[in-house]
Amino acid sequence: MSPRIVRGKVLKVGDNVDTDAIIPGKYLTLTDPKELGKHALEGLDPSIPSLLKDRQIIVAGRNFGCGSSREHAVLALLGAGVKAVLAESFARIFYRNTINRGLLAIEVPGIRNVVADGEEVIVNVEETTLITASGKTLQFKPIPKELIEIIEAGGLVESLKKGLTK
Amino acid sequence: MYSLTAKILARASGKEKVEVGETVIAQVDKVVIHDVTGPITLEVIEKLKHQIREPGRLYVFLDHYSPSPSVPASNIHKKFRSFFSSYPQTKFFDVGEGICHQVMVEGNVLPGEVVVGADSHTTTYGALAAFSTGVGSTEAAYAILTGKLWFKVPEPMYIKLEGELPRYACGKDVILRILGIIGQEGANYKSLEFLGSGLKSLSMSDRLTIANMSVEGGAKNAVFPLDDTLINYLEGFGQHIELGKLAYLRPPEEINPDLVIDLSKLDPMVAKPHSPANVSPVGDIEGLKIDVAFIGSCTNGRYEDLLIAAEILKGRRISRSVRLIITPASKKILAKMLENGIAKILLDAGAIITPPSCGACFGGHLGVVGDEEIIISSSNRNFVGRMGSPKAKIYLASPATVAASAIEGRITDPRNYLR
Predict the structure, then answer these.
(1) Pick the CATH number of A5-161 from 1.10.287.3610, 3.90.45.10, 3.20.19.10, 3.20.20.190
(2) What is the pLDDT of residue A147?
């Protein structure tokens, strides 16, 4: 797993996308990411799960992942094949969950005005840049090294096993 | 200026003092998991093949599906019972005991403690001058296995309360007012710290509601100081507070507040679809027809909430077009409402009383709402699809406003019924 460079088509969503929208409460007896993934973002729009078949990057507005602490939200995105979530800002618990589960989540201020829905983008974690198909470049703050190590290991459990963190 | 949160985290991490923004590794006194987020926690623990460090510090609740409405939920419960049978010291609360956050504040959390829960509303225990916050299932597993967790010391947002809370208003109206001002991410990563002379007029029930919903503004935690109201409340659960050791949690000196709320001028507030921060005074939307009225949840399913509802509903009937669903937050509360005649008053008025559970609040069971239905609810979230159909519309309000609205079948100002 190497999230240092992620390339994919964008699914664009708005502000305050809550975890009930990412995975509605009725699916919370599931824990398998593949099963949860079939319903990713269904609460926002029932057509999104099928769209996600060829969209690997979510671009969001402010406060993505607010509401419930359900880790199912991150598992659903991973299960749907999402490689990265880029947002103007993230809600706190969701952000911690992305790291603990090895999903790349990056705050990219200004992104919603630059990237279009369906556009292809390339995210370079090392160079802290995002390049769009239309040739625009956005810079983001570096992700702390410790967090990248957890994400690259595949999450907190995997990194614990590998002894990267204590 | 040194926040209560920083003081608690300093003690828990063995430091004299900590700075805002500093990352500390704190001892976690208690961990809470339940039947929605807990299955993932158990998967992680099993995967790591590790023994639970101190099972006596782990609180496990079967509260979301209580009692179970489906085969998958029953199977989760079966797994929990079997898993924890090898850890008899675990504090295990089976279906019917109540919602985790209510049971925890019935004598299970003490001032100054650090508590994490795999549930965002773990912020509730801040009303008990504790540091408590929601974490994901994996982090809960980490805290269960290691007894520790890392925290960034949050920036405090000081909220000063002045004046006296009127009888028709409660903690719900206070926190909705605050959310309306700061917005849905106005407190993101921050600690809401409450102070001021207005605290005297806030009951523990009011404070628990406020701390509970602080997460709807994105807050990491909320904290109230250790005052006489809290000391007397804990005495009621047989917990005697030695002030000597906990003096650092007493109400702070004068602090320059970020926000001042005059409680005496508070209107009953309502959060409109689809955000808890989309708030108006009840007057702005009075008269809107409703289908369902819900009183319950970790936010407002306490005895005080049912008492005010009973006061409004006594000798009256709810509208024929409304279902009024009442879900007490714990078995203790249900017992008390039976004992004191509250249950009879509510039933006579036409209410449905369910067993203690998270119930309708999260759309799991006991009142899942249908397409295009309009709900007035004492719970905490009105997101799209939260209580069932994504086509339903949820309005959040105090139990008094919900009860008054149930009578008229329309959103109603509780002042019409309370004098």
Answers:
(1) 3.20.19.10
(2) 86
Residue among A90, A35, A27 nearest A58 (CA): A90
* Predicted pLDDT at A159: 81
CATH number of B4-263: 3.30.499.10
| pTM, rounded to two decimals | 0.96
Distance CA B35, CA B37 (A): 6
Q: What is the pLDDT of residue B96?
A: 97
Tally of CA atoms within 13 A in the half-sphere of B255 that contains its CB: 22
Report whether B34 contacts B185 (CB < 8 A): no
Chain A residue closest in CA terms to B362: A25
Q: Rounded to an integer, what distance in angstroms lies between the CA atom of residue A17 and that of residue A41?
A: 9
Q: Does the pLDDT at position A166 exceed 50?
A: no
- The answer to whether ipTM exceeds 0.90 is yes
The CATH homologous superfamily for domain B270-416 is Aconitase, domain 3 (3.30.499.10)
Q: Is the pLDDT of residue A1 over 60?
A: no
CA distance A103 to A75: 9
Selecting from B118, B189, B383 the residue whose C-beta is nearest the C-beta of A18 gives B383
* pLDDT tens-digit readout, A6-58: 999 999 999 999 999 999 999 999 999 999 999 999 999 999 999 999 999 99
- Structure tokens belonging to residue B40: 């993932």
Domain pair B4-263 / B270-416, same fold: yes
Q: For chain B, what are the domain ranges?
A: 4-263, 270-416
- Is the Cβ pair B72, A29 closer than 8 Å? yes
Task: Give residue ranges of A with CB < 8 Å to any B CB.
Answer: 16, 18, 20-21, 24-26, 28-31, 43-44, 62-63, 66-72, 74-75, 89, 91-93, 96-97, 100-101, 155-157, 160-161
* Contact indicator for B115, B28 with CB cutoff of 8 Å: yes
What are the φ/ψ torsions at residue B219 (nearest 5 degrees)?
-60, 145
CA distance B208 to B204: 6
Q: How long a stretch of residues is chain B?
A: 419
